[in-house]
Write a structure and sequence with these properties.
This protein is mostly helical. Helix content is about 70%, strand content about 0%. It has five helices and no strands. The longest helix has 27 residues. It is elongated and about 50 Å long.
């Protein structure tokens, strides 16, 4: 549930971001600028896929409740989802963006 709330808040903030507004004003030019493309397109796309994938896996695990396979099923998929989320966070050391830790 916490991820779903974060997902909703993220989409609300997405439409308020000046980087996203700049991205949508001139998409052909913005695609060529790595940082603008990351925040305007890649970040939200990857995060949305991760949250949808998490909800689908949580729904599918209900078939395996009470079996030894259930925990392993969910654990493996949540590890992959976590790696997907961590890969789409704009870290300061990331090659995708040049963003400082503190502003």
């Amino acid at each position: 549930m916490a991820f779903n709330i974060q997902f909703f808040v993220g989409w609300l903030l997405y439409f308020q971001s000046p980087l996203v507004k700049h991205f949508y004003q001139a998409i052909p030019k913005s695609i060529k600028i790595r940082e603008v493309r990351f925040f305007g397109l890649e970040h939200m796309t990857m995060m949305s896929i991760a949250i949808i994938w998490m909800n689908v896996c949580s729904f599918l695990v209900r078939k395996h409740i009470g079996t030894p396979k259930g925990f392993r099923f969910l654990f493996k998929r949540h590890i992959w989802i976590l790696l997907f989320i961590l890969g789409s966070i704009p870290w300061s050391f990331s090659p995708f963006t040049a963003r400082p830790n503190w502003r």
